[in-house]
């Protein structure tokens, strides 16, 4: 049986030092894909982009800079404001930086840890099924 953790978090798309636009991020986690997190970015009720990246990246980014390449995550705090986590997503053409409240992201990550404890992902991964999908061209 597949267990899931889903939550839509209010995020900010950072346009400049003092300019941001609200964006919803629908965070999804599945026990049969224990290493990955899917985030669907929603604007005006429509999914505008979906990204997959490692759950470990978010966990590490709560406390320190994490990631290199396409996805980077780090904690951020302005004086007098709640702690946030910044997520930078890069493509060949552009870079976008988003921000989410650390308390909300932490609460969702705790839900994922209750499903698959960090460090125990390999015990939940059905490698034979994934290889069969790969060889069948369904990945």
Describe this structure in words.
The two termini are 20 Å apart. The chain is α+β, with helices and mostly antiparallel strands. Strand 5 (71-76) and strand 6 (84-90) form a beta hairpin. The protein has a seven-stranded antiparallel beta sheet. The longest helix is centred in the last third of the chain and has 14 residues, at 102-115. The model has no long low-confidence stretch (mean pLDDT 91). It contains three helices and seven strands; from the N terminus they run ββββαβββαα. The protein has helices spanning 55-61, 102-115, 127-135; strands spanning 4-16, 19-30, 36-43, 46-54, 71-76, 84-90, 95-101.
SSE topology sketch:
Elements: E1 4-16, E2 19-30, E3 36-43, E4 46-54, H1 55-61, E5 71-76, E6 84-90, E7 95-101, H2 102-115, H3 127-135
Antiparallel strand pairs: 1-2, 1-7, 2-3, 3-4, 5-6, 6-7
Strand order of the largest sheet: 4-3-2-1-7-6-5
Biggest sheet overview: 7 strands, antiparallel
Q: What's the rounded overall pLDDT mean? A: 91
Query: Helical stretch count?
Result: 3
- Please give the number of β-strands: 7
- Give the % helix: 10-25%
The gross shape turns out to be: globular
Radius of gyration: 16 Å
Strand fraction band? 35-45%
Q: Please identify the structural class as seen in this structure.
A: alpha+beta
List the helices and strands in order. Answer: EEEEHEEEHH
Cα-to-Cα separation, first versus last residue? 20 Å
Q: Uncertain spans, ≥5 residues at pLDDT below 50?
A: none
